[in-house]
Amino acid sequence: MIELKNVHKRFGRKKVLDGISFTANKSEITCLVGVNGVGKTTILNAIMNLTPINKGDITIDGKKMHANLYNKVAFIPDVAIMLPSMTVHEAMDFMKDYYSTWNSKRAKEIVRFFRLNISDTISELSKGNQAKVNLLMGLALDVDYILMDEPFSGIDIFTREQITDVFSSRLVEDRGVLITTHEIMDIEHLIDKVVLLDNGKIYKEFNAEEMRETEGKSVVDVMREVYNG
Amino acid sequence: MKKSLSPLLKLTNFELSRLSKFLFTLMGLTVLANLVGYIYIPMKFMDKINKFTIESSATTEEVLNSLGTLSFYDVTMSLWIVAPIAIGVSGLLFYSIFIWYREWFGKNTFAYRLLMLPVSRMTLFFSKFIVIFIGIFTLISTQIVSLFIGYPIVSAIVDSTYFSSLGLIESMYMHPLFLILFPLEPNYFLILIVGATVLLVMFTLILMERSFASKGILFGIGYAMVALAIVLFPLFLSDIFNNNYLIYGSELVIIEVVLMIIVSISSLFTSRYLINNKITV
């Protein structure tokens, strides 16, 4: 379980996270929802110890983030994070060299699934294909948790469909997924838990299915209520 | 690469492959400029000798009196040798900064990947540190090899009558830059300690900037100034107390080494804290 307890973060004078507490469980898809600048990416960066927090605690299965845990948690940011001069094949080799949890068989499967050409240089790929490479680097790791930051941003509709398919495939099966996205409609039916952020705080935390069954509202309906006032 | 290799070796090898193009360029530049110097300077000198001999119908003795001899040392003091060294030093200084910042800027953000590697983040730090030193030693070796190639070239071009008997090793010992850069004296280790300390302080400064942005630059400058003051302070003790016999030369060396080690260790600990807890992508 990924657990955030009373997490505070400031950038200069601006308070970005103001006492955030929530959990993301294994075998569940948890979605962080909020308008731009609400702190979604900061939360993911903080979990991966890529941004220091000012106050609070973040633990993964009860432990604070440390080097070995990067073999257990994969982060797929919305920017390309491998060297642009690398080919997809070299990027895969790089991952294999450092991560004991790199699964070569699954990597090949994902390459086929996304129809990537491993001899292509990353810098020459389209934004959509770079996003696929990012997904490949994260999904081919035998990790317990996957963090994804805006996986659909700036992606064409066909690539988006392919990425959506990932969520219902066995590529994320049994793993805990924590995802931030604006394009919630694409994956709404797959989400287990929603954490709605507003002004650096958690506005609402709910189970998507329960919300549908008890109040007859979709995640988008709840978002409209919150953000449209 | 084999999985059995330690992460430090793997990362150092990786960093080295990223440095290689730049390093080969600097090595090529050094060799090329040196070769031009080894050929151009003696040829120009011999031209002057021949011209003077023909125009003045001078004897060898008169030529020697007027134009003197050319030594290998004279060649090494020329810009063809000194400029590539200056370019190499500034190139590696630039690379010491670039080696960090390239991970954050540009189209891709490789800092994400490096900081999320399942290895101690100090491994990353040390791999960058080691690679800069490999670069330094590679350029120094290139320069030494080049001098050994250059000496026979110069002596072949210059007529033995006009070639000073000053040998290659003597020329090296006379050269102010080679005395600092080459391991000619037993106290060469002092130069290495100075180099390592400067690099560690510089890396700390960069990590402060990467951790605290503009505030970090101020912290970094403050840190570098304090480090400099600590290391330079003993050099001014005699002046402060107006007593030239306060510290002997050998004692001063020991004090300086100890102070530089203290600054280096504190830089290492500060860097470790920053890279583990404060750095931001």
UniProtKB/TrEMBL annotation, chain A:
Residues 2-224 form the ABC transporter domain. Keywords: ATP-binding, Nucleotide-binding, Transport. It comes from the Bacteria. One of its GO terms (molecular function) is ATP binding. PANTHER family: ABC TRANSPORTER ATP-BINDING PROTEIN ALBC-RELATED. This is ABC-2 type transport system ATP-binding protein.
From TrEMBL, chain B:
The keyword Membrane applies. The lineage of its organism: Bacteria, Bacillati, Bacillota, Bacilli, Lactobacillales. Keywords: Membrane, Transmembrane, Transmembrane helix. This is ABC-2 family transporter protein. The chain crosses the membrane at residues 20-41, 79-102, 122-149, 188-208, 217-237, 252-275.
